[in-house]
# Entry
Amino acid sequence: MALAAFFISLSAVGLVAADAASEGRLERSLARTPRFVYAHKSEQPRALWSWQVADIDGMPYDVVFLEPLAEDAPLPPGLARWPVPGEVFLSEALREVGGGESIAARYGRYGGAIAPAGLEAPSERFAYVRPAARVLDKDEMQAVSGFGETSGDGFSGLVGEHLHMPAIDDFPRVYVLLVLLPVGVLAFGLAGVPRAGRSGPRAVAVPVVAGGLAAGLVAACAMTVDVPLPLVEFTLSGRDFRQAWPLAAAAVSAGSLAVLAVALLSSVLPRGRGRLAGRVADVIRRVDGGRWGLWLFPFLLVLVTRGAELSPAEYRGIVQILGSVTLLATFPGAVRAMVAGLGRAMCALGERARHSGGAALLAGRRMVAEPTAVSRPLSALAMAVLVAAQVQLWAGAVGDTTQGALDTRRALSSSMLLAGPSSSEARTAAFVKVLPGEAVTMGVIARADGGRLDIVGSCAALRETRLSGGRLPCTTSATRTGTPVVDPRLRALLAALAPADIPVYARVADVPKELAGADVSGDHAQLVLVGEGERRLPVPELSRVAHQELGTTGSVRMLGDEWAWGAARKVTAGRWVQLLSLAGLTALAATVVFRLRCEGPGGDSAAPTGSAHPRWVAWWYVAPAGVATMVSAALSAWWIAAPVNSVSMPGPGAMAIVLGPATLLLATAALFCVHGARAPSPGLERRSEAESATV
# Structure
C-alpha cells in the first residue's frame, strides 16, 4: 500500500515538475530576448545584437554576438559585466560538451560562465560573444535598447534551447501514456490486493500516508538542487520546481487519496465478477488462448515490414501503423505458445535431472497446465513494449528528403565544407590564405536568372573534384562539363543548390574576387572547402579561423547541417520517449512480478519439496518466460520499424537501455516471488511420472 501511494504520487509530481520547468524556461527566455529599436521606435539604441546557430556533433547551440554602444548599456541576464572585445561567456553545459573542440577559443578568450538566470535551463548550450574590433561588422547586427521582450501571447523567446527541443504541448499526452498509465496499473494493482490480518480504514490509511510522505520528501529534495536527467541531456532547475510547490503538494495528496479510495473500495466491494467484467474476461481469454494468434503472428510480422516497404511513400505510415495494431492482437497467442513450450522444456529438463531439477519440473508443470497465468501479464508487458517502440519510432520519423540529406552528410562528413560569408574580397582572401594545406577552395555561383551554374577555383581544386583532366583541361575559359559530375562530394553539393538539368561550367579563376563580384551582381555565391584526397577537414579549427577572418557571422559548416539541426529536435524527442518508456515499462514489469508472486507456485508457506526450494520454483516460473518475452518484443519492435525513416530508431542498443531495468526485474523475480506467494498445487507435486511424460 505504501509503495502504491509512493509510485502514483511521485509520477504525478513528475508532471508538475515538467510544467514548472516549462514555465521557468519561458520566463528566462523572454527576459533575455532583445528589444529591437525598429520595433520600439521611441527607445534609444544602447547595444548591437546578432545571433547565429552552430553545432557540435550535429546538436545545435546558440551564439549571441553583442556590442555595447554606451557605457551604461543594459546587460543581458546571466552576465555580471560586459565582455571585453574578443571575449566569450559560455554556459557550463556548452563548455563541458565543447571542451574537446576548444569551444571558447573558437570565438575568442574565455571570460567566464553565464549565470543560471540567463539560461533557459541549467543544461542549455548558449554563448555570449563580443567580437574583436577587427572582425566586428556592425552592418550585420541589429540595434537594441535593452532586454526583456513580450510580444504577446504565444511568444516563447527569440533564441534558445526551446528552438531545438520538441514541442512542450505534446509532453503531457506522452507522459500520461508512457508513465502515468503504467504506474497507475502498478499502484492500483498493489492497492487492490487484500492483506491478511489487516482491516479497517486506519490499517489502510497509515501505509498510504507513509507512501505519500515519502514521495513528498523525494520531491522536496528535488526542489533544493538541480537534477540532471539521464538520456536527454536536460537538467531540472530546482528553483523552477520550488515555484510550483503548491501544485506538487496537491499532486502528492491527489495520488495518495486515489490509492486510498481504491484500497477501501476493494475491501468492501464483492470479489465476484459482474456481467460486463465477465464478458471482457471471455474476450481476453479468446485472444490469448486461441491458436490463431500463434499462426498469424509470424505471417503478420513479415507482412507489416514488407508491406510498408513496398507501399508508396504517402501510404507507408498508414500501412505500418495498421499492421502494427493487427500484430498487437496476435502477440498474446504467440506469448502463450512460447510459455507452454518453455514449460514443456522445463519439464523435460526436470525429468532428466530429477535430483536437482525439481524446481524446474514444478514450474514447468504449472506453465503447461495453466499457461495463461503466466502469458497474460507477460503479453500485456510485451504489447506495452511494442507501443513504446512505436511512439519512439514516430517521434523521430523524417521524410525521404531529410533522410537522404542526413545520409549524405554522414557519408561525406567533413571532406567538403561550406564557408561564409564571402561578400568581402579582402576577408575571403585573408581566410583562404591561412587555411591548412589539405584544404583547397572553390566557389560555386548560381546565376540569379537560374540559367547556369559556375564552379571556379584553382587548377588543383578542379582536379581534386575531377572537373579537369582528360577532356576537361584547366583553363580560364568557362567550359561546360558535358557529362554528369563524377565527384560524389560535388554531386551532393550541386543537388542541394540547383536542379539536376541545369548546365554546369567550370573554369580557373581567383575565388575571392569571383565570389565578391557575384554578390554585387545579385547571384548566389558559396565558398567551398574540399579536402585533398577526400581527407576529413578539421571543423573546429576552421570554424575558429572563419570567425577570426570572415567577420562576426563567419562560419564553417558541413553539407546538410540545416537538415541535421531540424532532425536534432526529433532526436531529442526520441530520447525523451526512451526515458519515459524506461520508467513506465519498469513499473509494468514490477506489476508482472507482483502478480506472479501472488499467483505463481512457491512461497514462504510452501515447504521445500526435495531440492525444489520455493525461491528456485519462483525463478523458473517467472524469469525464463519473462526474459524471453522481453527479447522477443524488442526484436519484433526493431523488425517492424525497419521500413520507416527515423532518427530515433528502436534498435537493439536503444531497446537495451529502455528494457534493461524491466528485464532485470524479471530475471531476479525470485527475490520478490518468495514473499506472499501461495503454495504450489498439491496435485502438481503428486503428478505421476507417466502423466508428466505425456506433458
User: Anything to note?
Assistant: The chain has a mean pLDDT of 82. The longest helix spans residues 313-352. The chain has 24 helices and 16 strands.
